[in-house]
Amino acid sequence: MREGIAIAGTIVTDIVKMIDAYPEKGMLSAISHVCRAVGGCVPNTAIDLAVMDCSLPVWALGCVGNDENGRFIREEITRYGVNGSLLTVSQEQTGFTDVMTVEKTGERTFFARAGANNDFDLSEDFIRHTNVRLLHVGYLTMLGKSDAPDSEYGTVLARRLCAAQKAGIRTSVDFVSAPPQKLRSAGIPALRYCDYAVMNETEACSVAGVPARDEKGKLLTANIHLALERLFAAGVREAVAVHCPEAGFFRTRTGEVQTVPSLLLPRGYIRGSVGAGDAFCAACLHGFYTERNPREILEFASGAAACNLSAADAVSGMRSIEEIEKTCKKYPRRTIETI
To answer: Which residues pair with 239 in a beta bridge?
Structure first.
């Protein structure tokens, strides 16, 4: 019987720098605090899953460098109870991201180097011999070898995901915000071999070819629903979840659609938003794995994201299932009319 979730793909060290404001070009902004933390899809999502459900087997797959940051990531993954035995070591340095976070608002801007992530390629041996039930890969566009063209499947990753599905493994992907053409070229081939997809509103709408927001920044909810349809048309089999600050959106293969507004958090609660999308994703994966219904998944995912927002780094805010559910009950939600 298959069990557990494997998280594969991007691994970075986040250097989180708290700033008073994002400066205009050529101007200076003061840094009030600096910390190092794990980052990227693999550590963030895997650790979040391990913290929320300590009974769930979780594996991490990806590439790190033979350097201090690589050792730091391996130690942190192990410390949280994630199985890191399948991580590989590259001659490249460990990927890293400078996360510039505005202290008052939690808004962040990323400056990233892919490094060892360019060497990641999902092992065919892993696909053949693993007993894992669900495989999640992110972030597409940041995985050099995996994003590379394949004459038959579109990308190397699409070939691997096809093999995983044939082996009886459920598959899932997540993207990272990138130019639309790059997202579509890396993402659409992979979506053909996915059971699930989880991403933010910008990524979903970029793949779908529609804007996520108007010129004033207001969310275009009709376009979110159109993006959900187009992601299914691209090949997703079971479910698509899209998250944004205002709400979570969900569509199933049967056409069921759910929208759950986000929690209204008190002033001063948000310490940072780095990793909030991964927290939402981890909760969705847990919901797929345990076969929760769409509304339950979105409510739980919004609570997981809210827990994440209470910490400056990507994983320290995560809590157990019970604590996440208490968070959902503690705070009110936005109304649909305000989305």
So the answer is: 196, 252
Count of residues in the chain: 339
Sign of CA dihedral 286, 289, 294, 295: negative
Alpha-carbon separation of residue 39 from 94, 198, 207, 255, 290 (angstroms): 11, 18, 24, 34, 26
- Find out whether 247 and 334 touch, Cβ atoms under 8 Å: yes
The answer to whether 309 touches 277, Cβ cutoff 8 Å, is no
Residue 22 has which token pair? 């994002």
Q: Provide the residue type at 249 as one letter.
A: F
How confident is the model at residue 160, as a pLDDT? Answer: 98
Name which of 51-65, 107-121, 212-226 the model is least confident about: 107-121
CA 311, 312, 317 angle in degrees (round to 5)? 25
In the chain, helix, strand, coil percent, each to 5?
Answer: 35, 25, 35
Distance CA(178)–CA(170), nearest Å, equals 26
The Cα–Cα gap between 60 and 220 comes to: 35
> Residue 102 and residue 60: Cα distance in Å, rounded?
30
C-alpha 160/C-alpha 149 separation (Å) is 12
Containing 242, the helix (H) or strand (E) segment is strand 239-243
- Is 193:154 a contact under the CB 8 Å cutoff? no
Asked whether 77 and 60 are in contact (CB, 8 A), the reply is: yes
Single pTM value for the model? 0.93
How many angstroms separate the CA atoms of 339 and 217, rounded?
A: 12
The overall average pLDDT reported for the chain is 95
pLDDT digits (tens, 9 = 90+) for 229-286: 999 999 999 999 999 999 999 999 999 999 999 999 999 999 888 899 999 999 999 9
Given a contact cutoff of 8 angstroms between Cβ atoms, the answer to whether 95 and 44 are in contact is: no
Place 113 in a pLDDT band, splitting at 50, 70 and 90: very high
